[in-house]
Design goal:
Oligomer: single chain
Largest sheet: 2 strands, antiparallel
Number of domains: 2
Distance between the termini: 39 Å
Strand content: under 5%
Shape: elongated
Order of helices and strands: EEHHHHHH
Helix content: 55-70%
């Protein structure tokens, strides 16, 4: 957001353009979360914004509302493995890294940033391995 002369806020930074909303709505409908996860008022807000807004949303309040709906949809559309990697794999890798460092393994410091190791821990957790419960 950029402040214009006179103190009004400019929300036309590309966050809420019409094409982006159309793509997000189409993706949510294909994934089956449009009707299941969004309240009716949120769906109507996005649909009307797509119909009425020419290019970019200029109203600050409308931009805030649309951004809230977009965040919700993007969270629902996130890949399950990526979500488990972020929520479980990274914390588990950091715990294991700390234990290994305390035992004298200097190279264990890089385990947290090793995406292969984080993915391995996440997949093991998805598969229900009792050894890797956080």
């Amino acid at each position: 957001m950029v402040m214009r002369k006179g103190g009004s806020r400019d929300t036309t930074s590309g966050l809420n353009d019409r094409g982006q909303l159309l793509r997000l709505r189409r993706k949510a409908m294909r994934a089956g979360v449009w009707f299941r996860a969004l309240r009716r008022i949120d769906r109507v807000l996005v649909d009307l914004t797509i119909k009425v807004v020419a290019d970019n949303v200029r109203s600050f309040k409308l931009a805030e509302s649309i951004l809230s709906v977009k965040r919700k949809l993007e969270g629902l559309l996130e890949n399950r493995l990526v979500r488990v990697m972020r929520q479980i794999g990274v914390p588990l890798a950091s715990k294991l890294s700390l234990f290994a460092q305390r035992w004298g393994n200097v190279a264990a410091k890089s385990w947290v940033s090793d995406l292969g190791f984080v993915r391995f821990l996440a997949v093991m957790n998805l598969n229900g391995s009792a050894l890797l419960k956080p």
